[in-house]
Structure formats: C-alpha cells, structure tokens
Design goal:
Belongs to the EamA transporter family. By secondary structure, this protein is an all-alpha fold. It contains 14 helices and no strands.
C-alpha cells in the first residue's frame, strides 16, 4: 500500500504542468490559480470531515498567513510561466526550492550546512542554469526562457517559504487543518485581483479543461496525504528516488501530450539537479518517520 500511495503522489505531481497547460486553453492563469485552491479546499475539507468528523480553519496565526501568501506566490508565478512556456517548465521549481530551504536552514535555524549540502546546492543551481539555457543564444534569453526562469524562480521561493511555514506550524496544528487554513487564505488572496486583472474565459469551454482544473485541485488537496502515508511504509531510498522521478514523468508527459521539444540540454540539466537533490536527501537522517505519525519534511515536495 505504501508503494501505491507514493506512486499516486509522484504521478499526480508530474501531471501538474500538463493540466495547467490544458486548463490555460480555456481560462487565464488567474482563474487557474484560484481553481487549484478552490477545488483543493473542497477535496481536503471532505477528506478531513470523513476522517475527523469536523474541520478547523485557523486565521489568527502569523505563519498561516505567511504560508498562504507564499503558496499563492508559488501557484501564481508557476501558472503564468506554464501558460507562456513549456509544460515541463515547472521541473525548475523543486531544485530552486531545495536551494532556498538549504540556505534557510543555515540562516534562520542555524543548522550547519555540510560540504555535501553545498555540493548539492551547486548541482541544483548548475542543473537549473543548463535547463534554462537550453542552448538558446544569450541575446534571446531575456525575452524568452529567461522570463520563464525568473517566474519559476519566484515560484520556487514561494514554495520554499510555504514549507518553512509548515515547519513552524506543525507543533501547534495538525497538518490537514493547517493546509486547509493556508489554502483557504491563499484562495482569498488570489481571488482579490480577479475582477480587475483576469480575462476570465479566454478560449472554448471544454470538458478536458474543466477536468484539468478539478484534477489540479485534487492534487493540491490530497497528494501530500498520499506522500505522507507512503513514506511511513517504504524504505527511505525508495522515497528519495521515487519523489525525484516526478521531474522525469513531467518531461515524458509534456512530450506525449504537447510534443514539447526535449533537448539534450533539458535532459542533462535535469539529471544534474536531480543528482543534487538526491545527494541532499541521502545526507539527511530519517529521524522521525517511525517515531511519530507526523513527518515534518513531507511537504517539501507537495504541489
């Protein structure tokens, strides 16, 4: 069962780029951002009510709002970048998030960064640079892939701050209601500018686009539960490898569904930063997985 749950989470995250690209054929990125939170809240609330018989939304905690703003930033910039770029572009979010969290561990929590950690960060940065470059002439980067890389960088920073907020909140609120509270606040944040900035429906209304919006919400609301439960039941090596296979699946789906060009630069950069993330994962002891039902690092890959 653990392997199945881990596979569900991994495959679900890998479809985010394709689903956003599909939904963008009907609505703009602002609507997509709101829909990811809206349908995610519905799925998560139903799950929590079935599990606990009640749901709790906490709005009076500083880190709830910090997490909500960060997650909103993560989704808004990711959706804009996916709309104007390739559907595999969000593979850049994870290595950027990894580097930001590594530095945050050293600066905010005074954790010592080992030599292996620095090597991991360097590999992540090099991999992102190679993927972003993709053999493009330097004079075209600023107007093309350079813009999408900037957007994905901002998205990765938002994802990292969201993870930090969860670390600060896990001791005071359970992870399900914590995320429900964060997603609810994020939905409000991304909904505010919609009447002014959004173009609403920008293309034909299709079943596939609506299905993509709903599935994005399901992924937002439930994938972290699958991952959290899966990692309790399988060896750590499987967790590290399977979690990072998301980027490979993402590239595969982008080619199969949209025929996005997959160059040697994309593959080389991907393998470089995956190596960096794996190196970092294997350098972190798995201390709390079997001692407590909470796994404090299980959100580092949540989409």
């Amino acid at each position: 069962m653990g392997y199945l749950l881990l596979l569900l989470a991994t495959v679900a995250w890998s479809f985010v780029g394709v689903l956003v690209k599909t939904a963008s054929m009907m609505v703009d990125s602002a609507i997509i951002s709101f829909a990811r939170f809206f349908f995610g809240i519905i799925c998560l609330a139903i799950f929590l009510y079935i599990r606990d018989g009640k749901i709790q939304i906490r709005v009076g905690m500083k880190w709830i709002w910090i997490g909500a703003v960060a997650k909103a930033v993560n989704y808004v910039f990711e959706n804009i970048a996916l709309k104007i770029g390739y559907s595999y572009g969000n593979i850049l979010v994870q290595p950027i998030q990894t580097v930001v969290l590594l530095f945050a561990a050293g600066l905010l929590f005074k954790e010592k960064i080992s030599k292996r950690g620095w090597v991991s960060a360097a590999l992540c940065v090099v991999g992102v640079i190679v993927v972003s470059w993709n053999g493009t002439p330097l004079d075209e980067l600023a107007s093309g892939s350079g813009l999408t890389t900037l957007l994905f960088t901002l998205s990765g920073i938002g994802a990292a701050v969201h993870v930090l907020s969860q670390r600060m909140l896990l001791e005071t609120i359970d992870n399900g209601n914590m995320n429900l509270s964060i997603f609810a606040m994020s939905a409000i944040i991304v909904a505010v500018p919609i009447p002014i900035q959004s173009d609403g429906f920008t293309g034909p209304i299709t079943v596939s686009a609506w299905g993509a919006l709903v599935l994005l919400g399901v992924i937002t609301g439930l994938s972290f539960f699958w991952f959290a439960e899966g990692i309790k039941r399988v060896p750590f090596a499987v967790v590290a490898i399977a979690g990072n296979c998301t980027v490979l699946f993402t590239i595969l789906w982008s080619y199969l569904f949209f025929q996005d060009p997959i160059t040697i630069y994309i593959m080389s950069g991907t393998f470089i930063f995956v190596a960096g993330i794996l190196l970092l994962n294997f350098s972190i002891p798995r201390r709390t997985v079997r001692k407590t039902p909470r796994y404090k690092h299980n959100y580092s890959k949540e989409q």
